[in-house]
Write a structure and sequence with these properties.
358 residues, 9-stranded mixed sheet, 9 strands
Amino acid sequence: MSKQICTEVVDDHNEALDFYYRLIARKKIPFSELCLVHFDSHPDLATPESILVQNFVNRRELLENITISDWILPAVYQQHFTTVVWIKPPWATQIHVGCHEIELGGDDNGLLKTSSTLPYYLSDLSYDKDLQHKRKFTLHVIEMSHLKDGGKNDIHKQLEDILLGKQWCLDFDMDFYSTQNPFLSLLGSQFEFIDEIFKFRDFGDLQTNLDHRKTQLSCLKYLCSRDNRDRNNGTLSENELKFLESLKTKYPNLQESISQAKLHAKDDEFINDLFYIGQQTELPHHVSTETEIDILLSRTEKLLSCLKTQPEAISLARSEYDEYSAQDTLDSVHCKLVCMLKRLYTVESTLECPKLSS
């Protein structure tokens, strides 16, 4: 009889890290050298901004200072996970398909940064070439198609080769199967404008990209955080002032549009910071049909059933309250995913379908 696999369902995806830490403490899974197989419409591979690298060892402090977008890398830096496989749907374009060898380390302020020049890291200024106490990990990005005739690439062999000789954990965000960008409806008619002014631009040169992005975000943070009358421009550098003037030239109604977007942002119960919201506009948005969901679930099951080994643990995130999962199909996806896992593995009895409203 196969072993019973520890499982847990959370809502916010960062809560999965606490699940894995509890399993490590109870010696249910290995302390290090694990591979994380991560089904999600989002990488969740950002660097935390609210905790120093040296404090990662303080479990309580770490869990209080991570978010849904940055919960994986602290565990990677501590070498619990040394390989990450992000299995993504086609609408998730944050990191391109392939194998990426990435270095992590502390910057001069003690915050976690990376030497990776992927746009995903350049856009949020997580790049630093002078890292301290470096550690490497391997990121594999694999795409799974949602189309009936789109499953021709052999991701089964690819994943089998990656997992050869490794112990691994299986992680799902239910928004993998159908996802929404909650800020699309929040910003309404202002969404395209905010998306345009916050968009990361690649000029083909690393230093130019970094300098432009720093200036761009500094100006936008300034615009989003105050009334921005001309007399306040003394807080900006010369380069930032030039950038601000170029924005005003390109968008004559800049101030009015920012003010309107700020009013929309205030309608959000949890996040009313337009500067934060502006950096989320490029998140994927694809509300799947039932057919697309079923195709992805079928391909997921086929992929996992072909593997020669089983996961050490399984985590599932609903992403209901942050509204990244499409709400109308979430309970259905949850139930189908649970049924699939029960067909594949011997899982804990606590893994159940949600109670569907009649």
